[in-house]
């Protein structure tokens, strides 16, 4: 880490010295060339004067008229040539003087900017240290099972973000409709919504196998985040080596698997006969996947190419899940889940991330597919953008913003969900999510509302009408609904979660050792295991070894590809296929028109045989 930091911080001064010496060298070269031009000019003037004297003497001789005219013309051209060469030398001298004066000016400006940047970095670093010490001094021990998930980011924490692009006016984020609850006491029996949507019957599910409920506490390592992040502005973070100090002891494949924490929503949806009610539960499931992120500001490990992760919960929850890292740059993971309770889910997610100075944007790219076996209903949606704020100073906090459009491709029914971004000036509930479920004709049937970190509710629409125009001249629809019913509610965090990376109950079990898993499974990744055990220095050393091993494999693969191209040009050999994932292959998606990796089968059969001979050695 020290080597990495010194490398980053020591990069600028040698560059400035080399720039200065290069500039001075160029000026010396220009001055030398100007001296050469002056010498040439003197020679031209000397020889030109001699030439003119000779021509004058010839002109004085008695020669035919035609010869005299020609000599006179040559004499005039020689005079013009001497005048032009003098003008060129003067122009070169003026250019050099101008270059020297501007060079001195730009050197002063550059030096001033460099000093200002250094001063700013020192000030920000000092401010971050003071803020950190104040936070430690004011911290109080927490004895509850976890912090309140409804706590709003404090205004003093976000006040350094003023006038930045991630702020939105509160009026812009208000929904384009107004909801009014109808007074209908009889709707409980015939409201058109199943009475078991309150999920209480699933809270008490007991797994058959005893799984772990805690991991070693997170060590208290201090680290200057700014010293590393200051050179990452505007860059793709997946290409920047980071120490494990910024990580949590889970891989991105395991974080992707955490989407299944509330899989009972899909079990319930599979039993729905009404596709619109099913859409409500699918929408709640899509929102529930963000509930684990509210306190999880640490980044997961970037999976190695070919790394896999399985989650076999067939006995407890009826599903089996498999993830594989199918690409390294850009980082992409393919995921497939098969449930015995009537549904299949698959996705390929590519993570794009950009550091913008004060905040980090994480953009998951790719479609999520969900198909129910009985009805054939096929839902497709995409994830929203996640933003990590207060990268430079203050307490890190995460926000989700954007829209999710869920489409049932069999019935053409839709659900539009809006994740409202946090606004300093808004009086709305933080982390608010609103949505409308509509049929294939665009007629709204359900209103969804809640927060992505706590709960989601649905309300059946009984009447709609066009309201009056708002402040911006936009006409809002007024929906009269029945009383809302609970779709999903977040489980409380386990005891001592604040010292265990704020892991949920499911997350605590994801890296638990399992027998007979693939040799490429994330549970077997040594740097991640060392970090979980609190041995961070060893984990950093092991992480560097694994990354160098992966780079060496990539270099060999690139060399093989180059050799295949050379042999192909000579008419020999076969076309080089490149890297091919083990359990997924690329296919064209007929619904989205995109090429994506889908499960080709064979993993669970190999596990039953306990035959992993086909697996690459990545650890």
TrEMBL record:
Phosphoprotein found in the keyword field: yes
Annotated segments matching region Disordered: 1-22, 131-165, 182-216, 535-574
Main location (coarse class): membrane
PROSITE patterns listed in its UniProt record: OSBP (PS01013)
Sorted UniProt keywords: Lipid transport, Lipid-binding, Membrane, Phosphoprotein, Transport
GO biological process, alphabetically ordered: lipid transport
Residue stretches of biased makeup (Basic and acidic residues): 132-143, 535-551
Gene Ontology CC entries for this record: cytosol; perinuclear endoplasmic reticulum; plasma membrane
Compartment list: Membrane
Pfam families: Oxysterol_BP (PF01237)
Membrane topology: Peripheral membrane protein
GO molecular-function terms, A-Z: cholesterol binding
Annotated InterPro entries: OSBP_sf, Oxysterol-bd, Oxysterol-bd_CS
Family: Belongs to the OSBP family.
Protein known as: Oxysterol-binding protein
Organism taxonomic ancestry: Eukaryota, Metazoa, Chordata, Craniata, Vertebrata
């Amino acid at each position: 880490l020290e080597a990495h930091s010194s490398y980053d911080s020591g990069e600028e001064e040698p560059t400035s010295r080399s720039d200065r010496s290069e500039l001075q060298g160029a000026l010396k070269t220009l001055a030398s060339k100007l001296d050469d031009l002056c010498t040439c000019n003197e020679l031209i003037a000397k020889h030109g004067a001699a030439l003119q004297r000779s021509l004058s003497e010839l002109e004085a001789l008695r020669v035919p008229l035609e010869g005299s005219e020609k000599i006179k013309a040559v004499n005039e051209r020689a005079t013009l040539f001497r005048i032009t060469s003098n003008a060129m030398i003067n122009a070169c001298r003026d250019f050099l003087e101008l270059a020297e004066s501007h060079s001195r000016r730009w050197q002063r400006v550059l030096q001033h900017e460099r000093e200002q940047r250094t001063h700013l970095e020192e000030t920000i670093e000092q401010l971050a240290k003071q803020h950190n010490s104040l936070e430690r001094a004011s911290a109080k021990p927490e004895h509850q099972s976890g912090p309140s998930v409804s706590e709003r980011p404090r205004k003093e924490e976000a006040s350094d973000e003023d006038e930045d692009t991630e702020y939105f006016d509160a009026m812009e984020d208000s929904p384009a409709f107004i909801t009014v609850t109808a007074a209908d006491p009889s709707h409980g029996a015939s409201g058109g919504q199943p009475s078991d949507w309150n999920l209480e019957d699933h809270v008490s599910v007991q797994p058959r196998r005893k799984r772990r409920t805690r991991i070693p506490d997170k060590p208290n390592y201090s680290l200057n985040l700014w010293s590393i992040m200051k050179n990452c502005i505007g860059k793709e973070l997946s290409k920047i080596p980071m120490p494990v100090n910024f990580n949590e002891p889970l891989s991105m494949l395991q974080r992707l698997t955490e989407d299944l924490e509330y899989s009972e929503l899909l079990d319930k949806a599979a039993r729905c006969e009404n596709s619109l009610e099913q859409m409500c539960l699918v929408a709640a499931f899509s929102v529930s996947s963000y509930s684990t992120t509210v306190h999880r500001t640490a980044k997961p490990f970037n999976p190695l190419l070919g790394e896999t992760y399985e989650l076999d919960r067939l006995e407890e929850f009826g599903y089996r899940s498999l993830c594989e890292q199918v690409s390294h740059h850009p980082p992409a993971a393919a995921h497939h889940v098969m449930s015995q309770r009537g549904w299949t889910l698959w996705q390929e997610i590519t993570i794009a991330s950009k550091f913008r100075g004060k905040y980090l944007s994480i953009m998951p790219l790719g479609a999520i597919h969900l198909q129910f076996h009985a009805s054939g209903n096929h839902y497709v949606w995409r994830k929203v953008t996640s933003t990590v704020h207060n990268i430079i100073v203050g307490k890190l906090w995460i926000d989700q913003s954007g829209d999710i459009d869920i489409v049932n491709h069999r019935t053409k029914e839709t659900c539009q969900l809006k994740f409202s971004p946090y606004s300093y000036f808004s009086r709305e509930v933080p982390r608010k999510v609103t949505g409308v479920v509509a049929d294939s004709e665009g007629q709204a049937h359900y209103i969804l509302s809640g927060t992505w970190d706590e709960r989601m509710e649905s309300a059946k629409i009984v009447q709609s009408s066009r309201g009056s125009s708002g402040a911006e001249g936009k006409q809002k629809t007024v929906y009269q609904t029945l009383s809302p019913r609970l779709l999903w509610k977040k489980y409380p965090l386990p005891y001592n979660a604040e010292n265990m990376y704020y892991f949920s109950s499911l997350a605590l079990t994801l890296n638990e050792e399992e027998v007979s898993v693939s040799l490429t499974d994330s549970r077997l990744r040594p740097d991640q295991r060392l970090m979980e055990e609190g041995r961070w220095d060893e984990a950093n050393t092991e992480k560097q070894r694994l990354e160098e091993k992966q780079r060496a494999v990539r270099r060999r693969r690139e060399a093989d590809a180059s050799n295949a191209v050379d042999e192909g040009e000579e008419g020999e050999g076969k076309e080089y296929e490149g890297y091919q994932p083990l359990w997924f292959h690329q296919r064209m998606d007929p619904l989205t028109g995109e090429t994506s990796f889908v499960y080709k089968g064979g993993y669970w059969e190999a596990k039953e045989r306990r035959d992993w001979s086909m697996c690459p050695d990545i650890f």
